[in-house]
Hints:
CATH topology of the largest domain: D-Maltodextrin-Binding Protein, domain 2
Strand order of the largest sheet: 5-1-6-15-7
CATH superfamily of the largest domain: Periplasmic binding protein-like II
CATH class of the largest domain: Alpha Beta
Number of helices: 14
CATH architecture of the largest domain: 3-Layer(aba) Sandwich
Amino acid sequence: xxxxxxxxxxxxxxxxxxxxxxxxxxxxxxxxxxxxxxxxxxxxxxxxxxxxxxxxxxxxxxxxxxxxxxxxxxxxxxxxxxxxxxxxxxxxxxxxxxxxxxxxxxxxxxxxxxxxxxxxxxxxxxxxxxxxxxxxxxxxxxxxxxxxxxxxxxxxxxxxxxxxxxxxxxxxxxxxxxxxxxxxxxxxxxxxxxxxxxxxxxxxxxxxxxxxxxxxxxxxxxxxxxxxxxxxxxxxxxxxxxxxxxxxxxxxxxxxxxxxxxxxxxxxxxxxxxxxxxxxxxxxxxxxxxxxxxxxxxxxxxxxxxxxxxxxxxxxxxxxxxxxxxxxxxxxxxxxxxxxxxxxxxxxxxxxxxxxxxxxxxxxxxxxxxxxxx
Length: 374
C-alpha cells in the first residue's frame, strides 16, 4: 500500500473506533490487568484527543497488511470489499510440526446443549452457570471493547461464544476475564479460567504446560514502524533485520518476543500487552513493534502515523484455544465445536465480520490435526 493510498483511507469510523478504544482501555484493567496496562490506557486516552487522520523471514509472502477500519453496522453476513485479496498462510520452517498441532479427537456424538455428561468438565461449567474465558480487551479485530455497546467483541470472542452456545444453548453465558499474554498459561494452570482465547500460538513447549484445541486461525509475525521510517543508512525498511541497533517492542510471554530475541543486534523491549508497546512507541521509547499481522493491523488503526512493513511474514502463528492439561474431555468438546463452526459457515461468517477488511476474503479454515493421546 502506498503512503498516498494509506493517507486517503481516513474515515470517521477509524477515528471513532480508535478514540473509543483508547478511552476504554484503562477501564478494563480491573480484571487481572497489570499497572503498566492501566498507565497505557491513560496515555492512549490522551492521544485520542488529538485529531486522527488515517495514514496509513523465511515464510510465505504476505500482501501488504491494510488498516482495519471497523464498521459499526458490521454483521456476520457482511460482504468483504471486492478489491481485497486473501493473504496466504505462512508455510516456512517456523511452522510448528504436525506433532505439535495435533490435538484430541472431538467428542462423537456431541452432547446436546444443556445436557452435558455427568462428571465431565462441561457439566461443571454448566452447573456453575457460565463459561469463564481469559481474553484480551484491546486487540482490534480479535478482542476489543465495542464503544457503542460496551461489550468485548472480535474473532477470538466469537470462538468463546460458540463454546457457550454448545454448552448452554446460549452464546451469552460467558464471563470474560481480561488477561495479558504472560498470564495466559498461569490462568489456565491455576483454574482461574476454563479456556483462553487470546491469539495464542500452538507450540510444542506450551503443550508441556497446557492443552490446545485444534488450530482455528493461521497468522504470521510482522513489524510496524513510523510512517516514512528509514534505516540508519537511509534505505527502505523491508523487515525486522533492517532494524539492527533499534529498539523493538513485543509483549512479554509471547512467541513474538521469543522470535524477536533471536535477531542479533535488535534490542528487544517487553511490555505487558501490544497496547503497552504502542504507548512506548508513541512516547519514543521504542522504534518499532512486532507481532501477529492481525494484531498490528488493529494497532495501525489507532495511530495514523505508523505503517506495517510491506514484506513477508517471518513466522507462522497457528492459533489454538487453551485449556487446562487435565481437562482432556473439554478439549475434545471444544474441538467438536470448532469442527461444527468450520462446517456450517459460522467460522467464515466470523472471519468476514472481523478480519476480512484487514486481511482479505476468508480463506479455507485451517484443517484440524488429530491423533494426540492423553
